[in-house]
User: Fold this.
Amino acid sequence: NELRYSIGLPPSNQFYCVTELDNADTNNFQIEVTTTGAPQDFICRFLDPGTLHVDWGDGSNEDFNASITNTHTYVTAGVYTIRFSGHVHLIDFFVYPDPGIGTPESISAIKTPIRGITGLTSAYEMFKHCENIPSIPEGLFDQCPGITTFYDTFLACYQITSIPPGLFNAQSNV
Assistant:
């Protein structure tokens, strides 16, 4: 979110302040991807999307309406914020089978709780081997009451040192 202030002095010399909150980034789930090569692929899987919108953070966007293992190529090395919104049953950054064909090691942060996504029923291996994630955002799954499995969700996430209190409180079917 971005907080903007407008400060002005009208002819009457009275001071006023207008606060405007930019809500453009409050209805999506965001992760940060760091690429070190150019070009570099980022691979992830979407299961049963109703329409999942993905902003890849490099100026390109895609909508997914069918299950797919997707490859997005970043042309330039850098840090990108990927934004997801819409409907999907599973987002998988590991991509089974072992040892995984996804690129979870490219994920450098989970920037927001999962929000702006409906239909999420599984966190199966979602962040498995995301070895560079330093922390889990508080309330990560709060808006996902339909998730019924967390099998291997954070397996081999070696940088994470603590679990936020109440991480799974919104799930009553686990």
